[in-house]
Design a protein that fits this description.
The complex is a heterotrimer.
Chain A (H helix, E strand, L loop, with lengths): L1 H10 L10 H8 L3 H13 L4 H8 L7 E7 L5 H14 L4 E7 L8 E3 L14 E7 L11 H10 L4 E7 L3 H9 L2 E6 L12 H6 L2 E4 L7 H13 L12 E3 L8 H17 L2 H29 L2 H15 L4 H21 L8
Helix pairs in contact in A: 1-11, 2-3, 3-6, 4-6, 5-10
Chain B lengths: L6 E7 L6 H12 L3 E9 L1 H11 L3 E6 L4 H14 L6 E6 L3 H8 L6 E2 L5 H14 L7
Parallel strand pairs in B: 1-2, 1-3, 3-4, 4-5
Helix pairs in contact in B: 1-5, 2-3
Chain C lengths: L3 H5 L29 H4 L23 E6 L4 H13 L4 E5 L2 H5 L22 H7 L9 E5 L4 H15 L8 E3 L4 H7 L6 H18 L3 E2 L1 E4 L1 H5 L4 H21 L4 H4 L3 E7 L3 H22 L5 H4 L3 E5 L11 H15 L4 E3 L12 H16 L14 H23 L3 H6 L2 H18 L29 H15 L2 H15 L6 H9 L4 H12 L9
Parallel strand pairs in C: 1-2, 1-9, 2-3, 3-4, 4-5, 6-7, 7-8, 8-9
Classes of the chains: A alpha/beta, B alpha/beta, C alpha/beta.
Chain lengths: 350, 139, 540
Amino acid sequence: MAVKSARVQAARGDAPEVAITPEFWSEFFAGNRRACARLITQVENDPGVVPAVRDRLSARLGKAVRIGITGPPGVGKSTLSSAIALGMANAGHKVGVIAVDPSSPFTGGAFMGDRVRMDQLVGNPDVYVRSLASREGRGGLSPATPYVADVIEGFGMDRILIETVGVGQAELDVLACADIVVLVLQPSTGDAIQSMKAGIIEGADLIVVNKADLPGVDTVLQSLRFVFSLGGPRPNKPAPPLMATSAQQSEGIDHLVAEIEKLATELVESGRHFEMRRERLELEIRDAIQQNLWEAFQSLVDADEEITSVATELAKSGGSPYKFVRETCSRIEMKLRASAKKGMKNETRE
Amino acid sequence: MNETPIKVVVGKPGLDGHDRGAKVVARSLVEAGMEVVYLGLRQTPESIVAAAVEEDADVIGLSILSGAHMTHFRRVRELMLKEGIGDRLLTGGGIIPTKDQESLATLGVGRLFGPGDDPSAIVGYIQEWVKTHPRSGVI
Amino acid sequence: MKLESEKTAPVRESEFTTVSGRPVQPLYTREDVAREDFEENLGQPGEYPYTRGVHPTMYRGKLWTMRQFAGMGTAEQTNERFKFLLARGQTGLSTAFDNPTLYGWDSDHALSEGEVGKTGVAVDSLADMERLFDAIPLDKVSTSMTINAPAAWIFAMFLANAEKQGVAFDKLRGTLQNDILKEYIAQKEWIFPPAPHLRIITDLFAFCGEHVPQWNTISISGYHIREAGATAAQELAFTLMDGFTYVDHAIEAGMDVDDFAPRLSFFFNSHLDFFEEIAKLRAARRIWARHMKERYGAKNPRSWLCRFHVQTAGCSLTAQQPEVNIVRTALEALAGVLGGCQSLHTNSMDEALALPSDKAVEIALRTQQVIAFESGVANVADPLGGSYFVEKLTRDIEDEAESYFAQINLMGGMVKAIERGFPQQEITRAAFEYQRALSEKRKIMIGVNDFVNADEKLIIPILEIDESVEPNQIARVKALREGRDNVAVGDRLAALEKAARTRANLIPRLLECARAYATEGEITLTLIKVFGEFREQSFF
């Protein structure tokens, strides 16, 4: 789990201390974009900084609506995201855009070309755009994505678009960290609908057929309606709204923005927004504690090596592993107690 | 990941549509493990610097074959200083006479590359520059 | 394939591929062309399918037009350069415009900053056109204008200037590049989305067919596609495919193919790989003739002709040891001539460094003259016809182009292929491949990755554009706007806008605007109101 690796280190007390100076925070809260940019880089590069950042920003978090924009490559997600961001900004929102592109698993490099189609957003004081390479997210979102969204929200943005290539892991990751998921298709993706990953069709809150100036829009809309009329992909939820846009021709954008806003309002008013946030926090706390204990264990004994040798032994002799488990757990307990007495050095700040 | 990737913003200012060099270089930088934010054509100095600020880029790379290099490099450099990112590298390439390169260097513009320079030279220069100009850990 | 002799004799360690990466055999024999029907596929020069040339006598009848591309600074400066070249024996003019002009903007537009007069001449209105061709008789010299997106309104200014010189439209000879499709593919100088641009191009075909019959209405260009990194076969395939697309549009607009096809012309690159370039140019003629005659049913043999201008490859020039560029250019020019070009531009040795100086331009022109008057190659038509190697290469490149046509047709045609980035991606990939071959020294560039002079110092003089050009030109266009009849300008722009909203031919309206000294940027903005602007789609 890629996202965990960030939390693991985040929860570790021995993570390198990064000096975020009070001057820095005052710049950040005064709306200095350079400070925001710098903080995003820190969060991206060094998960150890996450607790300090969360501590400082938590009072400002929880109100923004995070909108995932996903779909197959080439359907015009960047152009559409740009148009949505502009529409939201014109409606008085402050909008953050996180454009995620895959890192090369071979070189670690990443080519991020989304800004080419977002040049209308440049210089708009109500919009902040950031490109994010997936890094060790194994083809999915960057593990730092939720924290980057936190920074952008803390910077004052109340709408955060997370745009990602919807293939493989990324589209599932985006379901996990967005409040509303917009699935973008285009006329020629019609045939693919039947075979699309079940997860994303179930999870999408809104489905947009972009490039509606190309022929075949009606066919896609029809086959989508057909899919949902069978109740197949999501028997327990009503079918998501379906709509057609042409981002290149700026058609249907106002309607789309209005529809997203409607979903956002419903989300907040129904209490589901609060509930989603609560669930995510719960998950985060559990993961962090679990990982923290594991880390503590690893720092006390040479876990990997010991487990390997015990397992080898057991495989040969045919013994039960639970004797080792019980002994190890009590060993950890004792050591934890001892180190707690020595001082509160390792206490997490979460 | 052992090392944080270097982040480079690549763009073409002005009205010059010849993007072969910019694309080849961008791709070489990616292959060398850098994160490249490609801005595309018809950028203004303002839009380039605004993007570099938001992206917290280590490097801005401009490709200019239109002969307008003096205007554009000078302006981008000025804006970098104004926006507080004068500690980042401004480099690039195009058809830029030595005399102009020298005069841009006095303004704080880094090395500029020309036709015939191998992309690996640009990669090496950026890597070396970033290594010798560490950004402060304090934020 | 290995030769018997190669099994014993040593062979150099080299890839033995063309500059486009095409593998080349050690030897070509009768076997390689055994299946070629020479009667049908080669014929005679001046006969269908024109593989061997468009004229029966080729250069014995008329030498190619020596046409050096020129333009920089103000209209007066470029006018001087034109006269300099004509005085040295150049036989046609070719105008390079600056970037703002190429994009349809006036010199005082915000995006024009720093670009005015830099890589070409700044033209904002008829007034600049008058200065540009001052004392140059437009009925005596053929004039080429390299401009695309705003070609129709720059041409309107040219026509208005001809009127003022008292030259009838039907006496005008020359070429307008006017090729928007390759802009989307390679050079990226567009204004509107493809559809309105294609409409204006078709309008121009119709207008010129009637009023400017000697004018080449379009120069369908592979040059820039090649410069962007394409291989020889890609250059050929995408260019001819663009050509077919223009033909399709004109026919759809109700024109008869023979009414416009004779005025279509082409523009190819001549790169360093000598035989491959010759083969490409021969294949171009054969393919075009076949398609025009057999597919489009053109009856007039002039409609079958692929007449083309050639320019030597800018991307083959090096900033290092620039004098060596003279030699490169000479070889490329020779390939263009052996490939049967109708006009030729030879690059100057200093063009990897700056715009060419007078001295460098003169040597470039002299290079053509040496080929024409000293080398003897102009005495014989298609001297390489029948060469096993050249005929085989011609065949292979033709086949490769046809397979691209099939691929693009499957995508729904060239406009669709461009929209999904197909040619762009093919070119970007080829460019990167070539760069990699250079990095790995599988391909050699003298002075760049081999035979480098370590302590090289630049010793050739460099042309500098006076920094006062931009402010002066800006002042001029501002003064023009104050001094002219602005009511007339407003009326004519309004009439243009109205016509643009209908299917009417726009050229007469553009001519009216030009006559009233409407500026290029004003016309562009008027049309953007109707047609919208195209936004970049970057493909990798």
